[in-house]
Amino acid sequence: MKAVVYSETGGPEVLRLVERPVPEPGPGEVRVAVAVSGVNPTDWKARRGSRSGQLPFPELVPNQDGAGTIDAVGPGVDVSRVGERVWLWEAAWQRADGTAQEYVVLPERQAARLEDGVSFDVGASLGIPALTAHRCLTVSELGPRRLAPGALAGETVLVAGGAGAVGHAAIQLARWAGARVISTVSSDEKARLALAGGADHIVNYRSGEAVDEIRRLAPNGVDVVVEVAPAANAALDLAVLASNGTVAVYATDGDGELELSVWGLMSRNVRYQFVLVYPVPAAAKGQAVADVSAAAADGALEVGEDAGLPLHRFPLERTSDAHAAVEGGAVGKVVIDLG
Fold first, then answer.
1. pTM of this structure
2. Do 61 and 97 form a contact (C-beta atoms < 8 A)?
């Protein structure tokens, strides 16, 4: 089978296409014929060794997310799963084998059922973005721990950067759960995408009037902020949060330092919750996978230009170009076609 691998840290040029034997699933594992592999910022950061500068395995296959069909199961897995359409999550987390290959073996719980009406493109776009968005929307002290229609009814959610993959998923999940969604963007084109994704209101944060606009839309304040740029947006978030509001931070900006107004936040019992999807407790992760699967089955997590998340497609042999596109800030979702 064909696979893309790397054995040293560096730019996209370290990725190379190789032939590998088709792997066999072990106990508790499934083998998936990958149709579409999704590329996220975490994938190129891992390739560059941005945390430790070293690789955890001699050779790795990149990409956490994907979608395809189970074609074999290992001991202990119900044989009825053969032929099941699935979406994959965290395939490369603390493992050597991600989804940039024709077949991948992984624990069966990391292959979640994808309903027949849901495309592989949607399945490959879930994983990191949707599970991160779900966590951001369920960490408020006063909010729900699960998402379903009506779970966020009466809540106002502010999504920073609504044209990004996580922002897009947060808009869709929040709307599916009944929230009113405001999204900040930096351009008319990104405003169009956030609106197509389902945002009720759009505010250009470069207008100089973003705080006043959000306050007009939410005079009682916003309940949850899904935050991609905590340092740049600290003053704005402080100005628009409701009492007992939550800022769920899933990314960093600038030099990674964050300066906060302690009394301004304390006086309103505001919570800052930092979110990294990988170490989320297993029970909460399982609930998120179930909720995201349900939202996808309901048609709430569509992708593509008309849904606010343009797709940029590459064949497997151009995985290096796919990584370069994500690293270069491509707006939308980068996917690799295998099926």
1. 0.97
2. yes
Cα–Cα distance for residue pair 67/122, rounded to 1 Å: 8
Assign 3-class secondary structure to 270-318.
Answer: CEEEECCCCCCCHHHHHHHHHHHHHHHHCCCCCCEHHHCECEEEEEHHH
Q: List all residues 6 or more positions away from 151 whose beta carbon is below 8 Å from its beta carbon.
A: 144, 177, 178
Which tokens go with 256?
């990674």
**Amino acid residing at 295:** A
Residue 36 bridge partners (DSSP): 67, 337
Place of tokens 């999504």: 159
Q: Is residue 63 a contact partner of residue 42, using CB atoms and an 8 Å limit?
A: no
Alpha-carbon span 91 to 62, nearest angstrom: 9
Alpha carbons 87 and 121: distance in angstroms, whole number: 10
C-alpha to C-alpha distance for 307 and 273, rounded to whole angstroms: 29
CA distances (Å), origin 56, targets 23, 88, 93, 96:
20, 21, 10, 8
Q: 333 and 311 in contact (C-beta within 8 Å)? A: yes
pLDDT at 83 over 80: yes
pLDDT digits (tens, 9 = 90+) for 261-281: 999 999 999 999 999 999 999
pLDDT (tens digit, 9 = 90+) per residue, 3-36? 999 999 999 999 999 999 999 999 999 999 999 9
- 157-181 pLDDT tens trace: 999 999 999 999 999 999 999 999 9
Report the pLDDT averaged over residues 174-202: 97
Beta bridge partners of residue 61, listed in sequence order: 97
What is residue 213's predicted lDDT score, i.e. its pLDDT? 97
DSSP string of 62-77, one letter each residue: --SEEEEEEEEE-TTS
